[in-house]
Records
---
Amino acid sequence: MGEEITALELLQQVDIFQGIPDLILEELLETAETHAFEKGDPIFREGTPGSGMFLVIGGAVELTKAVTRGSGQRLALLDRGQIFGELSLFDDLPRSAGATAFVTCSLLFFPAGPFHDLLDDRRAFAPQLMRNLVKKLALRLRDADEEIRELSRAGAH
């Protein structure tokens, strides 16, 4: 199955945590909760309140967007080291997509409250983390733009 690594080593590999000192990452891990899901289990549903961000430790998670009643469009299939649900760190709006365990998976959950408290307490690292998160969100927005462009082209034919 893949090599075993510590939670700290995993965070060190995650793009949004690049440039963040290990001491801060360890403090962040102290706020995290570990959750396990079986294949097909909902992690959260689209439209429900968001309360934090997830990081895939192992397994895979499918993100979907409802398109018609009873069916959804796959947005992404995420595996180890990928984050999702990060929008709930910035707004109080409902989840913009649903997340389901694609296979048995384990996740770290970073609740928004303790995450913001750590940002307030450790202001020196906050700008780097915010730049990393904005960069990640910008990449996702660009991907969504490209997907819309492709759907538009397909509809024009």
---
Amino acid sequence: MRVVVAVLFAFLVYLQFTLWFGKGGIRDEQILEGTAAELQAEILVLKDRNQTLAAEVLDLKQGMDAIEELARTEMGMVKEGELFFQIVKPPSGDEQPRESTNRE
């Protein structure tokens, strides 16, 4: 009788070990749930980016305003009859031009 109880207890320990630490066990399930949550967050970011790109494509297909804006910002284009002014910042205090001190 003791042998049967010992065998059954060993089998129970084996089943519990397999349930918690074996392939497809609770530990693996928790790791997969964490991975699934990370992937869901990444999918949300990508969906948002796709919606933004789809709206930009629609703007480019429908109107000239978006095309004009892209040409102005990315290519520096100016309409005919417009004047373009470029403001250059003077060098900072550390980069002031030095006077030459040639002594003869």
---
Amino acid sequence: MASRSLNKVLLIGNLTRDPELRYTPTGAAVCTIGLATNRYWTTESGEKKEETEFHRVVAWNKLAELCSQLLIKGRKIYVEGRLRTTTWQAQDGNQRNTTEIVIEDMILLDSKRPPVGEEAIVTAQSVAQPTPTQSQPSVEKKKKDETSQKPSEDVNPDDIPF
């Protein structure tokens, strides 16, 4: 009988930097994200302590493209994935290791929006699967035109169906 094993990571934290989107030579999207998680506790003497862990998070394919479009430094997110450790030989001849979380799911936990007066517009190229010769998808920033803004409407709480 084969024994089972489990490699699962669940994290809630804040992004430490903007995502970096790249493409492999075969055209697969890969996005790297820095994520910080905090732990708080009180010592026996009553002193409050805090510890921060920094994680390297990697998303692939469509999830990578979505992460690069939706995430910015400071956002709070939930990620679910698995640990992967890579070993390589550095230029100085020493062996190096890095451990990262390869995510399969990501949920936004806050409602941060682009700065006032700007909106992110996703181009058609960012939705299409790029070829290895294409550059990464572009997200253009466009100033909102004052005349095209709709006036805000007052919402009556009694009109909300839930």
